[in-house]
Amino acid sequence: MSALTVRPFRRDDRDQLTALVNAHVAAVVPGVSVSTNTVLSALERQPDEFITDPWVSERLTLVAEQRDHVVAAAHLLRYRADPEVGESYRDIGEIDWFLCHPPASFRPDADDAADLLMGACLAQLARWNVRARYAGGEVPAPAVYGLPRNWPHIRAAFERAGFRHVGDTEVILIARVPDLPPAEARPGITVQRTLGECGTRLTAYAGGRALGFVEVDTSLARPERHARAAGLADIGNLHIDPAAYGTGLEHRLLAQAADWLDQSGVDRLLACEPSTDQTAIDRLTSAGFRELTRTDRRWQHRPG
């Protein structure tokens, strides 16, 4: 086999890098892929991370290459050390995402590529002299963040390098919009549609009092961001007043959301919940959702 080399990303790597990103995305969320423009833009800034992105002082993308073929890639971030940066991010280095092909009969040295690239990443973090090193898998695609359980080869590369999971685990769920509860009229309850913090908000009222709301984000497939995510939306918020627990209000809100999503041309809806909140997970599965995957957030480099 020809020698593996690690070098900084070049613009002419863009198509191969996009293919590598999409191969990993496809293992997590069905029917989603990102455009080359999306990948290139994400290397320069992350506009959706409007709080943490301004704290980044340096960005670097590395690729592992063999026979002019990009077989692995990683994107690194360095956060500033000044007081304006949130304490948990201050003076840290992060492997924002790390991707590589899994071992296979036609690519038996895939682990070598991953380990060589990981070594280069750790060397860069050492040169930055950051106080702590973290890693994740935040590629620019909906519902792909942390370290999805669908990437065991990436988990293995992290663990070989001394990274350990120190954060939370989230359950990502998906539902077909036609499988959501049907709309049923309930006397005394009205639903109002407004703009919410994370998308379109549908709020249920009774006697002038808000009982709960659901927010759905239908902007996941903006053409400048994603090449193939049409028909996909996300629950940004789902809140029920404790006094309305057990009344089926969440089903009514999801039914209203389903009607709105259907008119928007959306046929699938994503949601995520902490793995420790089984009540919330059960509430969604009873309404037509099913578990898509689990993802482990925040990995810290703890060698030895």
From TrEMBL:
Question: Where is each N-acetyltransferase domain found?
Answer: 152-304
Molecular function GO labels = acyltransferase activity
For this protein, the Enzyme Commission number is 2.3.1.-
Q: Which domain of life is it from?
A: Bacteria
Organism listed in the record = Streptomyces cellulosae
Gene3D superfamilies noted in UniProt: 3.40.630.30
The protein's UniProt keywords, in alphabetical order, are: Acyltransferase, Transferase
What is the name of the protein in this document? Answer: GNAT family N-acetyltransferase
